[in-house]
Design brief:
Elements (H helix, E strand, L loop, with lengths): L9 H21 L6 H6 L6 H12 L2 H12 L9 H16 L1 H4 L9 H6 L2 H34 L3 H48 L4 H11 L18 H17 L2 H8 L4 H35 L12 H9 L4 H11 L6 H11 L11 H29 L3 H24 L8 H20 L17 H15 L20
Amino acid sequence: MQPMISTISTLDSLVVLAYLAAAVVVGLSVGRGNHTLDDYLLGGRNIPWWALLASIVAAETSSATFLSVPGLSFAKSGDFRFLQLAIGYIVGRTLVVVLFLPAYFRGSLFSAYELLERRFGRSTRRIASALFLVARNIGDALRLYLTAIVLSKAMGMSLTSCIIITGVVTAVYTLFGGMRSVVWNDCLQFVVYLVAAIASAVILLQGIPGGFEQLWTYAESHEKLRMFDFSWKLDDPYTFWAGLIGGTFLTLGTHGTDQMIVQRCLSARSQREAGRTLILSGVVVMVQFALFLAIGVALACYFDLHPPAELIKKSDEAFASFIVNNLPQGLLGLTLAGVVAASLSSSLNSSAATVVEDFGSLLRMNDLAPAKRLRISKLVTLIFGVVQIVIAIIAAEMGLTNSVVDNVLAIAGFTFGILLGVFCLGLLPFRISSAAASTGMLAGIGVLIAVKFGPQYDWPLFKATVAWPWFPVIGSITTFTVGALVTPLFPRHDGSVENPAVSPI
């Protein structure tokens, strides 16, 4: 998405730069307490639940959320149906608390994928870790690219310069501050983008002569308040069933098997606090979605009364257009900082934890002194920072369009369904070999690629086109089913847990 933003004032530029500087200062200040690997990767397992709550919500929010979700309700036929997805989010988080958190807190774990080695063997753990590393770093690099587009158009700087500046800020505060820096910067980001969104909503409402009453009348007359759609259409991402089932499976994958989220849970003071954090984060995300959707409806009403000077070609450009043309100096800078803040939640620390813990034996790091392993973790953090910057620059040089970016992000999203499927294999009462689990994962990847990019036909009962919320459902079920079915073909001799009764999953 390339929002319609022109060069902003010096004051607004200073506000954005002040925010970026504050992120670095936070990282440097909290990093002083990092003396061990446990401190660096998990914040000493002593981070307050409310800080982790803000961190998890911020980690799920990006500039695409900030600018695009309002576009869903702003569109001509837009409404609140996107909010159905949040229902699945809450259900999925609840299941994660019941099914996965007890296993994560049963030992002193650093990585979500340590459980897979105990159940299936080291090779499955490494395959899962590699999937996470590829998907998460591509996804965050593209998020960095999209954010740099906004900064470039706003501040009159080159796209490459904006990518480097934003990427370096993220890498620096993560490198020096570790998980504590990530969490406290997430808290700062959460406050900044939420304040910016609320301030924009207030100014929007002030621009509607009849205030809230006129806005409500407009929303009702244009059917903007519809939230539920109980139809069964696989090609529609905004039905109740896609939201409930797809949202549940997606959250089981992202919050049950994604190292970036799991690592935040492991940083909690106890399993109980981690569980409270996860469930409440689902409620906060629902409220946040409702706020952005309400902004979209207000935008539709506002532009109906005050047609913009420049035609809004895409619905997700509406909020950006309003921000630039209607917000006063200072507040514009704060809102732009909010857009940037929504995209700075770092996965670099999680990537470092995955490499050091899941590939440590392969790289001969397990026998190193703790201080040296800590230094290596910081080096790996820096390397991934460079990798994400390079990928973002390549995306910029290729001039990727929105549709291409969305397709790449969809492929990255396949990971969570695959990982969920293999984690669920660990719940079976009989033993699964590493080869069977790996076969299931490969089958899941193959089916998802075929569903996304294969020929599209109209079948008698439904269209073959499948909306994105169903991807994690298809991926996890395929991985689980194939892995279970091929188990008799592969003898178990991979050194994993022999007695499933004592398995940590």
